[in-house]
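Q: What does the assembled structure look like for these inputs?
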Amino acid sequence: MTRKMKRAALALAAALLCGALSGCGAEEPAVTETFAMDTVMRFTAYGKNGQAAADAADREVRRLEALLDRTDGDSEVSRVNSGAGAPVTVSGETGRLIQSARTFSEDTGGAFDITIAPVMDAWGFTTDEKHVPDRGTLDSLLPLVDSGTIAVEDRGDTAQVTIGEGQSIDLGGIAKGYASERIEAIFREQGVASALAYLGGNVYAHGEKPDGAPWRVAVQDPQDTDSCTGVLSLRDAYAITSGGYQRYFEQDGQTYHHIIDPATGYPADSGLLSVTIVAPAVGPDGGDGLTGGTMADAFSTALFVMGEERAIDFWRRSGYEFDMVLVTADGRLLVTDGLEKKFERNEDAGYIYEIIR
Amino acid sequence: MRSSVKLHPTRWDAAVAAVILLLAAVTGGAYWSRTLSAGNRLQAVVSADGRELDRVDLTALSAPETRTYSGSGYSLTVEFSAEGVRVASSDCTNQDCVHTGEIHHAGRSIVCLPARISIQLTGGAEDAAVDAVIG
Amino acid sequence: MKLTTRQLTLCAVLTALALGLSYMENFIPLGLLIPLPGIKLGLANIVTIFALYALGPTQAMLILIARCTLGAVFAGNLNALLFSLMGGLSAMLVMIGLSRLRRLSIYGVSMGGAAAHNCGQVAAAMVTLGNAAPLAYLPVLLAVSLLSGTLTGYLAGLLFRALEQTGLMK
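A:
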């Protein structure tokens, strides 16, 4: 063959080799770690817009923190709390979030309630001076726990929020869930197909991993924090866990955890050690309000307060779209049937496994 | 016939075969050592404010090692061993990091919020790998 | 390039033969052993080697491209085109090079071709899947190429001897 052909052949061979070698090494994601909303957050995004998406997510959680943190005097929630019974003008976004919280409160029979703030303050959970408040104090504060008095007038870009005099709201129970929903939107806007947002125990899994495998999220065992009850396989889904073991203090030999039952003012004693809610992604059109991160966050606390029976009943009849993993105090691990194929349980954890249909 | 060709195997054919086998061995070896080296070494990654400060290969430790890190005005003393990592002591206000105890599995982390320092384990056995831990 | 009618006919017949071999090897379930999509034994390389020696590299290349294109059209699968072309072209280039080495017999050339064919297939799989996972199969495929190369070489040799007898090869 001619010299020209030989050269062409060599060039092609070299090109093939280069092509093969460049395929070596799995794609590296952009990873951003940040501290916000009183927890550590990690955003992992693949693809050419991965870094831009992770950065946008970082900025978004800071923006939301400034908006919603009630310990920050300049935040919108702070202004709502100083309303003293009169309407306060806030952004439409905050107004709608408060409205969602109100709806969740109604639908869960008050098991989730953002007006619990005064009670939480009495326990010292926000100031880090945790102690058991006296009976009298709690009795005087319980009447203030009532989302029914919240009124939100949505005006598009702005909203008017009115809460009762003496009342105070804390959005800590849905802020991270809402933030993860905003991050879902950011991932879509940036054209990222594969990403994971970890917000201190809240996870949003976007798409699947580049090799086609689902995102694997382990659910911590409440009784052994170094072990897990099982691993969830997630694609386009939220997974949020609430449990008493996450934050607690001890006084006079008794343990008090941070998930207060709005009905009693005391830490919920419902027989559950942890509740994990798994909900589908909202999707590009914003969803119908029956799924998503905000809902999952609210319900993880609400169902913990409700206890096993009420939680299962709620799952069956509420009309909201989600699945759950419950760990009971008497050693059972309950999983709703939507997760039957997506939850790989850890047999060494020693729980009795039941599927709820 | 444009060109003649030998129809019986020669010694040189064996040389070609040997080269191909060598290539097979080399690619096999390269791939094998790559999977062994990259994925499986359990490493502890220490970050402050999201920036990586330190990376310790736990599998290379013959004896426990202690290192100190500071962030946002607080200081943590971290103990690394072949089995895992823990915060031995810290002058932070809530001591959550110390209370976490020792972590052993990839994917788990110890976080000190006041100091904004996180210690995360990565690597380890592939089949046990998870992308995040909630709870 | 001008082809005589005789040459053109021969090319056409060989293309058809290559297509037939290509089609036939689909029935050999290589996928069960080596789970890469579109992986094939490369029996059509018998024709490629034969054409290379009997007709020269230009016509052999022509037959190769015709066979790959038609094969993909018949299969209705564009992905198959990628795999055949990358496998076939790699084999062709290596065999053109090796055929210049007088000391090698048809077996050496054919083994080299088979090895190159497999490298091409792995490269095609990497392009399709978008990652380096198929590289894991390369060592095995290379070892297997010694066998398939020997087989292909033997069959091509048979073809030569048979055709010599008929006097078609002048």
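Chain B is about 25% helix and 35% strand.
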